[in-house]
Amino acid sequence: MQKIKKISLMLCCLMLCLTACLAFVGCGNNPNKIRLNEVTHSIFYAPLYVAQNMGFFEDEGLEVSIESATGSDASMTALLSGSADIVLVGPETVVYSSTTKDHPVVFGQLTQRDGSFIVSKDEIEGEFTLKMLKGKTIIGGRAGGLPAMTLEYVIKQAGLTIGENASAGEVNLRTDVAFNMIASEFQTSSSEYCTLFEPTATTLANEGKGYVVSAVGAVSGEIPYTCFATKSSYLQNNSEQAEKFLKAVKRGYDYIAQNDSTLVAQALTASFAGMSIEELKIAVEQYLAIDAWSNDLIMSQSSFEKLVDIINSTQNTSYSPDFNELIDNSLAEKISA
After folding, report:
1. pTM: predicted TM-score of the whole model, two decimal places
2. Is the pLDDT of residue 7 over 50?
3. Strands (DSSP E) along the chain, which ranges?
């Protein structure tokens, strides 16, 4: 009898443990909890942070956590390894990963222009033009990343040559600096220029360590610069959550478009505690001035093809991705209808 009781007790304990484990796994797989990995933390992604800080995700029944990476490659690694559900990255990373199993798919476009600003060590007299880069060095981010590729594209479009022969007027485009190290390298190196995103550009200028002279997006034209991507399987199995996610981000954009920059800056303070309202206003106004954000989150095929042209022309590659295979606009079109 005692033996039977022990066996029964063991079975009860085993069942309790199993029940607890199943409950834990079920909680961990809650589809309304979304882990977002962003390529970097920047006011360039303001609609996302407004959505988070104003409770728009909660209104949709979602719990969104945001983790910052140090580049699109790191974010994509997080997605493919399963440590992120959605990533905010440059779509070039989706192109690079198109042959992977359960490949990533773009389901929403956040930004439609380059969001970096050209910063000069010296104050420029008069209006800055790209011709002023002739014979100079500019730090443009890591090789293969969209910031560096877009910068190379606009430099060449201006009739300049990329190279290290300053006496011949070549532009030395440095692509050997990690994205998050550009500002510090710019200050300590002999490079005359660099490109920085907000809030770093404004912060550097306010510290008297540089001058913001131009926006790359103002000369590059429309490019699908930053997008929300996820695995094909996630989009198939969690389309309801992905749609709600986009709805909240769209509300974030609408809030920016419909309110003055002071209110928008106040909505961003929780995400940029080290910046003043005035600094945040300047950054928001700069991005509004170049029409940086997509108002409908839809990526056009023509802009995607322009992106592929930039990749191939700057990297000497021959990518020919299928737009319909890598881009799914169905949810963005649904919420914008």
Report:
1. 0.86
2. no
3. 33-38, 63-68, 86-89, 104-111, 117-120, 137-139, 172-174, 193-196, 211-215, 226-231
